[in-house]
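User: I'm writing a tutorial on reading structure tokens. Could you give me a worked example: one chain, its sequence, then its tokens, then a sentence or two explaining what the tokens reveal?
Assistant: Sure. Here is the example chain.
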Amino acid sequence: MTAKALDSYDLKLLRVLQTEGRMPIVDLAEKIGLSATPTQRRVQRLEAEGIIAGYAARIDRQRAGLGLTVFLQVKVDGHHERKAALLQQKLASMPEIVSCHIVSGDADLVAEVVVADLAAYEAFLMGKLLKLGIVKEVRSSISLRALRVDGALNVV
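And here are its predicted structure tokens:
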């Protein structure tokens, strides 16, 4: 299903769920202007089609003891398919990395790392990332303050 196949009720439903999370179907139905039964069917269809990929709690990083966010620009050592696949697998398994993108430009990857403090970041960088033997260069940018985190997608 593409965005063109989503009608106005689907879009309202997605907007509400992104900002308010799971809620009783009756409440969701009231917010989007439908009765409970068709709302439930829409939610089930959007879940089955993978448009709604899942549900999760949003955790306050500071209160959870994860006060440091670092954005890494990573260059890999060579561009061999096997090395790239290994790096992707290793990065995906590191819980400190909350998002990672293959990008164009100066870096090969951009990763968002969330840890407790500078000591934890150093342990991650030296003890995990650089020990992979695939990383040629890392540039770190420390977040001083988040202006917006986990924003809702602009479904239209």
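What the tokens reveal: The chain has two domains: 3-48, 68-142. The beta strands are 68-76, 97-102, 109-115, 135-142.
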